[in-house]
UniProtKB/TrEMBL annotation:
CDD domains: trans_reg_C. GO terms for cellular component: cytosol; protein-DNA complex. It comes from the Bacteria. Keywords: DNA-binding, Phosphoprotein, Transcription, Transcription regulation. Signal peptide: none annotated. GO terms for molecular function: phosphorelay response regulator activity; transcription cis-regulatory region binding. May play the central regulatory role in sporulation. It may be an element of the effector pathway responsible for the activation of sporulation genes in response to nutritional stress. Spo0A may act in concert with spo0H (a sigma factor) to control the expression of some genes that are critical to the sporulation process. Transmembrane segments: none annotated. Residues 4-117 form the Response regulatory domain. This is Stage 0 sporulation protein A homolog. Residues 126-224 form the OmpR/PhoB-type domain. It comes from Schaedlerella arabinosiphila. GO terms for biological process: regulation of DNA-templated transcription. The modification 4-aspartylphosphate is found at residue 53.
Amino acid sequence: MQIQILVIEDDEILNSGLCYNLQKRGITPFSAYCVEEAKSLLKKEHFDLILLDVNLPDGNGFDFAEETVSRCNVPFLFLTAHNLEEEIIQGLRAGAEDYIVKPFSIRVLMEKIQAVLRRCSGTKKTEPYVCGSLTIDLENRLVKNKGSLVSLTPTEFEILEVFCRNRDQILTKEVLLEKIWDRKENYVNEHALSLNVSRLRNKISDGEHEYIKTIYGLGYKWAGEMQ
């Protein structure tokens, strides 16, 4: 399962650098530069970890952590330029896994991220997605259509998972191939991908909803509304 991390940092250079280093380690990063952008992404995506700057243009990281992040059941690390004991205590009391003071070593931060991910893996539950007549339980790898179990191959399920986790994005065939097969060092051509997407589309179809939309010349996009 692909790990996704939300980077909430208004310094564009630092945000970009963090995302670059996360990608190098096989992690999918998402960038937010303010509280409102972060809130929007949290409504749409599942995250395994959040990197949260304390000082943001439209809000305070401590308030955001207590009001929003704490309800998402996602571990988070504070990033700050302030090395004040009171703020460190405040950050830890807000539920942060750690409090990272700028400037920091990227290598050390990446190791701390991996340590948090290891520590928190298996401790949080992912709620099933409900979309139209579909119930998609990514944690237990189960899909139901109108209450009846849908039998998917491992490849079909992985494609469905990628769509669910990237449901507001157009996914090119190249991106799908990279996310699903390249990480396993298996080669699958575009024809095999199209065939698997077609089979998946037929298996989850209910005659009322279009879940996977073909964007001609580009790729595919999840068209269902998640509840």
